[in-house]
Design brief:
465 residues, 51% helix, 5-stranded mixed sheet, alpha+beta, 16 strands
Length: 465
């Protein structure tokens, strides 16, 4: 199917089924639908979904050049007015992920000092402690087998909660673990539906999501209120303490609702994304024992028997390459949506003003014009020389431009150090060869990623000593 435009070539796209277009394909597997569309129709694709009168039309841009224009060089023309972000805003508040214009700039200026490299490096010991606790717990794993999906979700959630809340970690973890999946599926379903019933209607889905959202907001509000009442809680270094004190003369500080909104965004972005990256890095290494052996050799040489520290991030290049390759194959944010506010020509095609547009790390990271044998796991793609030779937006798991993820250094630090602790303690062998996937607000595993554990001699000798 093609669309005749006033200027430039027609924009091609899949026909789908009569009257409904690609609606069923997108619901069945969004990522597969986008991948096939790029293969069959090129780097700029028009999609239609839904019946006449309720039809959604949007455009996919899959080249690195197009992604760069949308996210970076022409970012002002592509805003977060997309219905998906409005649903995220309704559930998680108007934090850094969803805010725009003056609100976003003010929040970014206030929050940015909390994410400097020096500040984030100070959380390395907390990351190592949580990873060490997982390694100890695995010694009694039933049958010597664990599910990396569940384990890394728990590890990442405990880590970000500890860094956010300090001593309030247990209450926050239990609530987030219970409420996030409910809100996640609700937001995605509404964000990509042509029409939705108002949120205040008492439908079963609305009531479940409202209850989960209220519970999540309540636990955050209680902790924020406690922090403010205490004046100088804990040791004053957790992110919540810093957020309550953050501000400057020009922008002021954050009120209680704004602090809660930032906390909710950090919980969402700080645990689901890192959990996905960690789980798939370890699972891919478990499936490729030769690569795992090389990484373990590096970890042993760098760390010996000591705990990892922030400076080790630069001393573990082979492990970092394996992580980056896992993030290429399984980007935690597989699709990024925007709404155009001006007609833009990309790849020789004219995308009209007001159009909904997506870019997709999932698709671009598998583009055969950019990556040789793109489905193969090969960490050597990320040697410094090969990285320098590629387009900046051939690999963009953290987005890019002025809205790039503020926590990307923290995510890399946590993933590398936690993986190093676990790989020093165990050899991993894959039980499940493939892990089923689903695309929610973030990329998520829809089934287990089990591995068999073999305790390493170095760990046993440390225990004996």
């Amino acid at each position: 199917m093609t669309l005749t435009t006033r200027s430039g070539p027609a924009i091609p796209g899949p026909r789908g089924v009569p009257f409904l277009g690609s609606m069923f394909d997108l619901r069945r597997s969004t990522l597969d639908t986008f991948t096939r569309a790029r293969r069959d129709h090129g780097d700029v694709v028009r999609f239609t979904a839904g019946p006449p009168g309720l039809r959604s039309v949007f455009y996919g841009v899959f080249s690195p050049e197009g992604s760069q224009r949308i996210l970076a060089s022409e970012a002002a023309n592509f805003r977060k007015d997309h219905p998906f972000y409005e649903e995220v805003r309704q559930s998680f508040g108007n934090g850094l992920l969803t805010s725009q214009d003056a609100d976003y700039l003010r929040q970014r200026r206030i929050v940015q000092p909390l994410f400097t490299k020096r500040r984030v490096d100070g959380y390395a010991s907390a990351v190592a402690a949580e990873a060490r606790a997982v390694a100890e717990r695995w010694r009694t794993a039933p049958g010597g087998t664990v599910d990396l999906v569940g384990e890394m979700n728990r590890l990442a959630l405990r880590t970000v909660s500890r860094i956010l809340f300090g001593t309030d970690v247990e209450a926050a973890v239990a609530t987030v673990h219970r409420c996030f999946p409910v809100i996640n599926s609700y937001v995605v379903r509404r964000g990509f539906s042509p029409r939705n019933p108002p949120r205040h209607w008492p439908t079963p889905a609305n009531r479940r999501a409202a209850a989960a959202t209220a519970e999540l907001h309540a636990v955050c509000d209680r902790i924020v209120a406690g922090r403010r009442a205490a004046g100088e809680p804990g040791d004053g270094t957790d992110l919540l303490s810093l957020l309550t004190r953050a501000g400057n003369a020009a922008d002021g500080g954050l009120d209680a609702a704004e602090v809660r909104d930032q906390v909710l965004v950090f919980l969402l972005a700080g645990h689901e994304t890192t959990a996905t990256s960690l789980a798939f890095t370890l699972h891919l290494l478990a499936r490729h024992p030769e690569e795992q052996a090389l990484v373990r050799e590096e970890v042993d040489a760098v760390l010996g028997d000591r705990e990892p520290e922030a400076a080790d991030l630069e001393r573990l290049p082979r492990l970092t390459m394996a992580l980056k390759e896992a993030m290429r194959l399984y980007p935690a944010a597989p699709v990024v949506s925007r709404r155009g506010v001006a007609a833009t020509e990309i790849g020789g095609h004219r995308i009209p003003d007001g159009a909904d547009v997506i870019v997709s790390p999932w698709v671009t990271h598998r583009h055969p014009g950019l990556w040789e044998d793109p489905e193969r796991f090969d960490p050597r793609r990320f040697t410094p020389e090969r990285e320098a030779a590629r387009h900046r937006y051939a690999w963009f798991p953290f987005g890019g431009g002025p809205r790039a993820c503020i926590g990307q250094h923290f995510s890399m630090l946590e993933s590398v150090l936690a993986a190093a602790v676990l790989l020093r303690s165990y050899e991993l062998t894959a039980v499940d060869r493939e892990v089923p996937l689903t695309a929610g607000i973030t990329l998520q595993a829809a089934g287990p990623g089990r591995v068999r554990l073999r305790s390493r001699a170095r760990s046993r000798s440390r225990e004996a000593g």
